[in-house]
Amino acid sequence: MSKNAETVGAVTPDAPQLGPEESAAVRKAAGASFIGNFVEWFDYASYGYLATTIAVVFFPTVDPVAGLLSSFAVFAVSFILRPIGAIFWGNWGDKYGRRWALSWSILVMSAATFLIAFLPGHAAIGIAAPLLLLLLRMVQGFSASGEYAGAAAFMSEYAPPGKRGLYTSIVPASTAAGLLFGSLFVFVLHAVLSDAQLASWGWRIPFLMAGPLGWVGRYIRVHLEDSPVYLQLARRAEAGPAAAPVREVLRKYFGRVMVGLGVTCLNAVAFYLVLSYLPTYLSAEIGMADDLALLSSTISLAVYIGLIFLMGHISDTVGRKRMLVTACVLFIVLGVPAFWALDSGHFVVALAVQILLCAILTMNDGTLATFLSEIFPTRVRYTGFALSFNTANALFGGTAPLIATWLIATTGSTLAPGWYLAVVAGLALGAMLTIHETAFKPLPED
Length: 446
Fold this sequence. Notes:
By secondary structure, this protein is mostly helical.
């Protein structure tokens, strides 16, 4: 039997088998990791699915296309602070512990989201309204930059042997759960409120919910132990936590940061196009009714959540690289045909295409968080992960809806987002082919 055949599916030695107390700790860690990302992505879903309403409230003096572009521009600009937030939260999380960084990031993030609910519209205070919206979105982006990376590093360090992919997949699952709940919530708002009620006060309700959810998440995180892997590092007299994580990452692991950035760019574009932008695309560009567009998105999100754990488990068996490369190839081949099929405007076709795209996305999304945790050592795992992940999202993720809308307006073709998705998948494939398999080894310590 070959060496590769022997290692596939092997139990890795980076953690002992879990007893009852350790299992309970893992469950608490999973809950703490889940809720922060849930709040973050519930906010993003609410903003994305209510983009046309928010455009009317904050940008009423421009035509509908320009208003939608302005709404997505605020969404994109809020990502500018993500790399800065990644440096801040990653530095804190590597020097002082994962749980403290996570407990503070959720507090700042939920507070900024909560305050959006109280913003007056353009009709009340003029240009100050969109400027205040932009300010709060930037604060939210800064704090959210510590969520995904910290939660993924936290879970990968807590995960039992041979199951890092499965356990860490709860992080992307929590993002999809937030999007799903946001989609359902906005669907109900559209169903029970008139357009005037939605523009007047209905759009504020989802943002109000961030306050109590954030406090619950902080309470859970404050009462957690840090990950066993990090506590073991912290107890060392020598070679303990990095004194300057950012400098160490850039000096010793810059190549891995660039690989992580390249691989994550596909996740960023595909995630925001498929799970956040498509309802707006179907309603604003294709002409599908808002409730049908949201319904198709809701169903496909439910499928996504079910598949994400399966893909995490499969990545434990066949490896991270194989899963990520396959996702790249499928997006290259199917990106344009998928948007061609969506152009038909038929609900059943749109639903089938969204489910297909979600299935391909889960191959990437269910694997990526674990992969990024595995390419950086414990001393700088939070910083390396956060820097590569958030820089890619700042450049490609936050701008995806804006670029897609702009490409359609510029080219006159509703297939333009499919071409954009295929090109980015090609870039990610090039990055992925430069690195070796990471799944069947202990988490690197140095």
